[in-house]
C-alpha cells in the first residue's frame, strides 16, 4: 500500500466485516507502518468525541470487505477533523465520491483502481485563522493590469461625474395621473380592446364595463394580475360592474 508510510498513525474504519478480515488487514498495515500505530473504528459508532482532532496521518475507510461503510457528510466531517493537516483519506466506494469529498473540504481528490479514492486534508487546521497584510499583496494576488487600473482610478479622464447623467426633467416629480397605465398593456396608451376603462378615461368618458364571460366574478383567487376587477368583491355571472375610474392606482 503505497499510500501508507512507515511512521504513520492510521485509523481504519470498517462496517459489518469479519474478525479474520479485520485482523488480516491490520497486520498488513502494521507490516508497513512499523513505527506508527493502527486504530479501529466502526463507522456506525464513531462520533466527534471518539478520537482527538488532528491525530491521524491517514484514515483508511471501507477497504475491508464487505465494503458496507456509508460515506455520509457527517462521517466525512468527522474524518477531516481527526486527520492532521495534509493528512490522507483512502476510501473505497462504488459511487462517484469526487464531488462529495470536495464539498466536505478535501483537496487533491483522485480516483484510483477498484473504485478507490485518495484525498487530502488542506495544509491548515479546520477553523484556523491567519492575519493578512493587505498593504503588501503577494504576487499571486496581482490582478490583470487593465482590471487593477480601472478599479484604482489610474486614468481620471475616464471617470464620469454622476451628477451629469441626469437633466432637469429627470429630477421632476411625476404627476400621479401620468403614471396611470393600461392594465393589459402596461402603457399609458390604451390597447385596441381595452376593458380596464383607460380608453374611456383618456377620452374623458365614464364607462360601465361589459358583462364578464370568464371566472372573474368568482373573486380575486380566480383573477389574473391584470384583471380590471382585481381587488373588487365577487359578483354574479353576467352582472354589470361599475369600475371606479377616479380612484388612485
Automatic annotation (TrEMBL):
Residue ranges annotated for the Anamorsin N-terminal domain, each copy included: 8-113
Chain ranges of the Anamorsin C-terminal domain: 210-242
InterPro entries: Anamorsin, Anamorsin_N_metazoan, CIAPIN1, SAM-dependent_MTases_sf
UniProt entry keywords in alphabetical sequence: 2Fe-2S, 4Fe-4S, Cytoplasm, Iron, Iron-sulfur, Metal-binding, Mitochondrion
Subcellular location: Cytoplasm; Mitochondrion intermembrane space
Record has Cytoplasm as a keyword: yes
Regions annotated as coiled coil: none
Gene Ontology CC: mitochondrial intermembrane space
GO biological process: iron-sulfur cluster assembly
Cofactor(s) in the UniProt record: [4Fe-4S] cluster; [2Fe-2S] cluster
Protein residues bound to [2Fe-2S] cluster: 182, 191, 194, 196
Pfam families in UniProt: Anamorsin_N, CIAPIN1
Molecular-function annotations in GO: 2 iron, 2 sulfur cluster binding; 4 iron, 4 sulfur cluster binding; electron transfer activity; metal ion binding
TM stretches of this protein: none
The family this protein is said to belong to: Belongs to the anamorsin family.
Role noted for this protein: Component of the cytosolic iron-sulfur (Fe-S) protein assembly (CIA) machinery. Required for the maturation of extramitochondrial Fe-S proteins. Part of an electron transfer chain functioning in an early step of cytosolic Fe-S biogenesis, facilitating the de novo assembly of a [4Fe-4S] cluster on the cytosolic Fe-S scaffold complex. Electrons are transferred from NADPH via a FAD- and FMN-containing diflavin oxidoreductase.
Record comment regarding domains: The C-terminal domain binds 2 Fe-S clusters but is otherwise mostly in an intrinsically disordered conformation.
Quaternary structure (record): Monomer.
Name of the protein this chain belongs to: Anamorsin homolog
Native source species: Papilio machaon
